[in-house]
Amino acid sequence: MKTSVWNIKEAVDNHSLLKEAATLLQKNEVVAFPTETVYGLGANAKSDEALKKIFTAKGRPSDNPLIIHIASIQQANEIVEEIPEMAQVLMDAFWPGPLTLVLRKKAGLSDVATAGLDTVAIRMPDHPIALSLIREANLPIAAPSANLSGKPSPTTAQHVEKDLAGRISGIVDGGETGVGVESTVVDCTEAVPVILRPGGVTKEELQRIIGEVKEDTALHNKEAAPKSPGMKYTHYAPEAPFVLVEGSPMFIQSLMDEKKAAGKKVGVLTTEENKEFYQADCIIPCGQRSKLSTVASGLYDALRAFDECNVDVIFGEVFPREGIGEAIMNRMMKAAGHTVVKEK
Ligand code: AMP
Ligand code: MG
Fold first, then answer.
1. Which of 103, 222, 266, 277 reaches 20 to 30 Å from 192, CA-CA?
2. Which ligand is nearest to the CA of 154?
3. Comparing C-alpha atoms, which of 45, 41, 22, 27 is closest to residue 137?
């Protein structure tokens, strides 16, 4: 399949290139587009034929439901049974933005999109291209991250091309995404909202608006079954084994020295502050430790970069689990398959 790439520097409604992309969506083809979190792989949420193409292109397990992207509250009303007060408050505060709400779905909504659940995940993205494209297509657009399943999510059109060229109809290139980690998924079907996946909107920000917020127990307990099906899959992993280290740069260097002595090539995922400290075959900073939002936006590009440098093992620094740090550590723990070495 030929994959068209449209370079769109500024999104204007009626943009002729966006029209081409929107027409393909209306013809039930799949098209990747930028959002403020990561690139999404979009398809008509009303067509099972279109939705199935997403699962095929990504190699995504069919029991992992999709987030439906909308550009107006009217579109939300077509998808969900009702918008409870709590969800309304969160929409008013955070939409458009990196917050996905899980609500009771309207009867008739595709079981392919929701993996047979009686709930649906919806979000209004805060990106002019995403919003224009959804408006132009005049459809709710189901869109998971536009990567091959298991790989780090794409934060540039080039990441999407690397994974999906030849497998999808088109890519709207709108440059780098901003937030860099996916949306926060919040279940609004019970009395108190529950975070199913940490993301671009932090727990602290949610609490400031809504008061009590719970977290799915599976987020901090590997044995528990997650309420969000996607959270059970390995994800974000670079090709070489990735080990997180709770310890000083000196300790990380000592671990790398042991590997080097055994003839291994080593990589380290670090920060601007610490990058000069290390001696390794591949040293990749993902942002500034003093500004965690830069780590979030640089994390997936950094994880992908290790695949270019042929190392045998990668060690990674950890981050405080505060604010956006919670989402960063959630993704890093998954990338590392939960392997953490602690300095004594
Ligand atoms: P992705 O779009 O690849 O970033 O993944 C979307 C995430 O939202 C996955 O973890 C899904 O399991 C989760 N999700 C989508 N729909 C639902 C739903 N109805 N209930 C719970 N989690 C959901
Ligand atoms: Mg994903």
1. 222
2. 2
3. 22
